[in-house]
Design goal:
Layout: H1 8-20, H2 24-30, E1 32-35, H3 41-52, E2 58-60, H4 65-78, E3 86-89, H5 102-107, H6 111-127, E4 132-133, H7 157-172, E5 183-184, H8 208-215, H9 217-224, E6 229-232, E7 236-237, E8 240-241, H10 246-256, E9 262-265, H11 272-275, H12 282-292, E10 297-298, H13 311-316, H14 322-338, H15 349-356, H16 360-372, E11 374-378, E12 391-395, H17 402-406, H18 421-429, E13 434-438, H19 467-480, E14 483-489, H20 510-519, E15 524-529, E16 543-546, H21 554-562, E17 622-629, E18 633-635, E19 640-648, E20 654-664, E21 675-684, E22 689-696, H22 698-701, E23 703-705, E24 710-712, E25 716-723, E26 730-737
Length: 740
Amino acid sequence: MASPQATETEIQTRVADLMSWMTVEEKAGQLTQYFTFPGVTEELENVETEVRAGRAGSLLFVSDAAEIDRLQHIAVEESRLGIPLLFAYDVIHGFRTAMPVPLALAASWDPSLAEDCQAIAAKEARSIGLHWAFAPMVDIARDPRWGRMIEGAGEDPFLGSAMAAAQVRGFQGDRIGAPDRVIAGPKHFAGYGASLGGRDYDEVDLSDSELWNIHFPPFKAAIEAGAGNIMSAYMGLNGVPASGNKWLLTDVLRAEWGFDGFVVTDAGAAADLETHHFAMDRPDAAVRALNAGVDMEMAPPFGGDAAFRSLPDALASGRITMDRLDEAVARVLTMKFRMGLFDAPFVDVAASERTLATAAHGDVALRAAERSAVLLRNEGGLLPLSRDIGSIAVIGPFADAARDTSGPWIFRQDDSETVTVLAGIRAAVGNGTRVDHSVGVSVPKRLHPSIFENPFLPPTPVIEVDDDAEIARSVALAQEAEVAVLVLGEAEVMIGEHASRSTLDLPGRQQELLDAVLATGTPTVLLVMTGRPLDFKGAQPTAQMMIWYPGTRGGEATANLLFGDAVPGGKLPYNWPRNIGQIPLPYAHLRSFKPEETEMRYWNEPNGPLYPFGFGLSYSSFDYANLRLSSDCIAVGQSVEVSVDVTNTGVRAAEEVVQLYIHQRYGTAARPVRELKGFNRIALAPGETRSVTFPLTPDRLRYWSSATRGWVQEPTTFDIFVGGSSQGGLATVLKVDALA
């Protein structure tokens, strides 16, 4: 038997030997992944039948160690060839320990932090017998109406690529099969984040320039980091469904990038080629998906027939080849050998319980929540608050909502372990400060149920109160307090998959609550719990901080930020529009033919964002000086170093995210006014100055040109900008000459 440390030659020899014993039905089974849902007896019985018959290669949504072990015993001991199962799960931002949501981790601008968080998630998941995470999601999202932007890194491909690679390293370690690690599955290939109108599952129509320059880079970075799996997307891409798109899955992914892992569809996406009216019927859908480059079908949930069950018939009729079938099977079996499943397929249930109870995992979650927060406003220096304050009114439906604090797309967290904002504040101030609480308003129900609101998952607590009475109570508490802390935003079921919105307004009567509290004149801090920009109307609180969905230790982290034990240093991973009518509003837009009117596109208000990409305040202040290049002129193909001196001019130790942007003035295509090409989060003591240096390598100066139908780096002139956001900063010029 091969071991996790076996050479690739040894593994491939063993794979070939095993495949020589397999029937066509067993081969098709290795390419089929079935859902299992707790409590759905009939579904589970059907799955067990397929496992015993060798017609299932993978299962998903099993999250109990003992149940995983039981099903694995069936596969290994009761099927003809004893091939172990791959168990997969949506490990998006933690397993038992909820980390801040991925968009929040992107706001930290700290890839090493994202790597640490996913390493903890992988360790917890692997301990219960899971082998594979359907993460990271690396789709670029420039329309905040799309709920799934919360799973990614925002709007920028450079930041997105850094976060994608870091998360892959966190999940997989230094190799596939590393102890306490799982297979990373970047998704959704490709363009899913650009769905029309921000409507989930809707079609995507992207130019080649947008695909190659914006949407492809994070996937390529994830593959270069070693990702073992890629998940294909649901939707149609330029008229061809992604899960049946041979150009995408074979020409780009395999031939262009050299990906050697396996491709799995999103849930039911192979069968849904028929739904798209792309395939004639479900057997035709299976043929089209396999021939396009899909290696494994995630079967439709809730009893849907797997399309790949028809592959033996397709082989017999000549619609697929044995070579293509064997290629896909070999990729799946290779991954099982790399993960060591043929040596150690079973679960140590007792050890898993100890791993899940590791207190140190929460320390990583705490650090991540502190580093992810983005301070948006702090007029008059209201923050940080004094611990000597006599009374605080903590108001809002999410102030003491453990489930919402953990955030969407996490299913095995223990809500009793989650520290809410209210609990964090009370623990921070102790008995010397009176802390009153009101939920303020009800949380409205969605017009359409969430796909996660089903009887097989823990229900989300519903917040329902008499809004009029509770708003009046909130006003009274605010009037009696020295400071009010409002925790507003969106319930976790209002964002994520199947959670697009047609408005960015505060849901329900939260805006009315905000206005009423502000009218009291009490100094007010607004903590925003969501994963997208929102449109706050009317008067604005003196202090505002984006805390996202901060995870298991989120309330403790928030209290540390409020009282100055931690200093906010996060930066926005997207432009924050003034209102929904501006969307999409990417910072990296092309220069118009009337650039002097950029801010006058709308006659009724400025065109620019409320807060720009890369923006975030601190309890300190920073000065940038002495921007310099190692050479003012380089040749095509050469590199240059960009350096700047950054000084902490405040009285607190703090961290700043130093950001490098470029603009190419002319070439075979027009280029965005600014593009992020480097960043570094640095810690500075009061008065300390540090020199920060960025490399500008040829790959950072090139782009995919529609004019040449390929990658180009051209002799041209670049504007170089360095600062604390995508606006302003210091500027200089770089000249790039043709090769001698």
